[in-house]
UniProtKB/TrEMBL annotation, chains A, B:
Gene3D superfamilies assigned to the protein according to its UniProt record, in alphabetical order: GntR ligand-binding domain-like (1.20.120.530), Winged helix-like DNA-binding domain superfamily/Winged helix DNA-binding domain (1.10.10.10)
Sequence ranges assigned to domain HTH gntR-type in this UniProt record: 19-77
UniProt keyword Ligase present: no
TM stretches of this protein: none
GO MF term (any one): DNA-binding transcription factor activity
Protein name: GntR family transcriptional regulator
Transcription regulation listed as a keyword: yes
Length: 236, 236
DNA sequence: TTCTCAAAAATGATATCACATAAAGCAGAA
DNA sequence: TTCTGCTTTATGTGATATCATTTTTGAGAA
């Protein structure tokens, strides 16, 4: 019924925090598919907890727009349509370019080294076909950059966008293996070393476009038969 | 102890939704100040409810970054510092310009008329000194524009930013009365009529800068004695 | 077989309770 | 007076119980 990847539970974590973190991680890596029927009590039983902390975690996730709590006792992952994907991608580009630009003055050589280390680790995960770890490392790569700015407030928003793209992650990562794209992360690192804001923005946009963008559109085209008859009417 | 403006409770609203909406509105218009000590049980007693729906509403608000649930049984409105205000303002500009640009192709004459009507109403509220209604109408003015795009996904993010600027609203509105600024909304409407994306972005940035930006910085300078000795070290 | 509808089961929302722990109050010492 | 440490109070968390609704199921009719 469910298959939520386990996570480490810090002793100081409340139950509600644990449920939230575990569900969030599961959605982020694409382990929860839109088809799966979620219920508060079902999740509580699966996790061997009472419904209370589960409901609170679900509410938080709906505020982060990772899930939707429909009024009629249905909990769902928002359905993705072509125009919605387009909007989310554009928003992600705007947000991450903004975050990168605001972080640039705080970027140090040490930080660039950390990012390169994460990027190297990603190559290992590609070799070992560890798709979830690859997703997490990819996020980590971006997060390290954006949090260089100590006053930064945009990261939670960006993570909310990542959550909304969660259901695409696994397909995206799989598509990445096929194409074996030019490594946009290397371009990001180069732009950082040269403190080139314009190049940085271009590299980030390309990274998003080549990753989620291309793969996401292919998934949508392949998986939605009705979009073949009315390709542009997904939102009606 | 509390003074949360009352709101209309739709019969279909759950208690948790009602609490969330009422608190959210109160924070948005600046009725909840950072000094106020909030507790789950205190709020529940004030609203004559059980703690459960109150806790859920507070959790959602913390996910929207309207409040912070500190581990040590303290709930607070995040303290504003000069660099944090700067970051939030820049983020708001980026987000609202993005939203406006994405909405522009969907803007119709009818929509512009609706926006102008809202702007006219704001002038009335300035006359009648109804500051909260002025804030709400100001948000409404922007919201109508951004939701012109039917696929729009950015509005919840923008509202989260508005929430974070909530504690400044009342001072800001008061400052607006003093300066009686050039009406940036008129510039926005002109840019919309001419379908001029660049002018629209400039008008929105100016609107934010002249409104929250100027007033917010003044409030911070006036109200924070320690920032006089170390003007740029607010975040350390 | 398929449809209809009533009974049964499941579910979400909320209140209440018990428990652990943090905050507040307060008495006595310095 | 001010600080220290203990007691009391208040608070957050999570489990459980109850109630109103929704969903599901299945028997009988078409």
């Amino acid at each position: 019924m469910f298959d939520l990847p386990e996570i480490y539970r810090h002793p100081a974590m409340t139950t509600q925090e644990y449920v939230h973190a575990r569900l969030r991680n599961a959605i982020m890596v694409g382990a929860v598919q839109p088809e799966s029927t979620l219920t508060i009590r079902g999740l509580a039983e699966y996790l061997e907890l009472s419904p209370t902390p589960v409901r609170e975690a679900l509410r938080r996730l709906s505020s982060e727009r990772a899930i939707e709590l429909l009024g009629n006792r249905r909990i769902s992952i928002p359905v993705m349509t072509a125009p919605r994907l387009e909007e989310i991608l554009r928003l992600r580009m705007t947000l991450e370019c903004h975050a990168a630009r605001r972080a640039l003055p705080f970027v140090s050589e040490v930080l660039i080294d950390r990012m390169r280390a994460i990027d190297d680790r990603m190559d290992d995960y590609i070799q070992s076909r560890d798709l979830d770890a690859l997703t997490i490392s990819n996020h980590e790569f971006h997060r390290v950059l954006y949090t260089a700015n100590p006053h930064q407030t945009v990261l939670p928003v960006i993570e909310s966008v990542w959550l909304q793209l969660g259901p695409f992650q696994r397909q995206m990562i799989r598509a990445l293996e096929q194409f074996y794209l030019i490594d946009r992360h290397k371009e990001i690192l180069t732009a950082l070393r040269e403190r080139d804001a314009a190049a940085l923005a271009l590299a980030i946009e390309a990274d998003i476009e080549d990753g989620i963008g291309r793969a996401g559109r292919e998934v949508l085209q392949a998986g939605q038969p009705e979009s073949e008859t009315h390709p542009a009417a997904g939102w009606m």
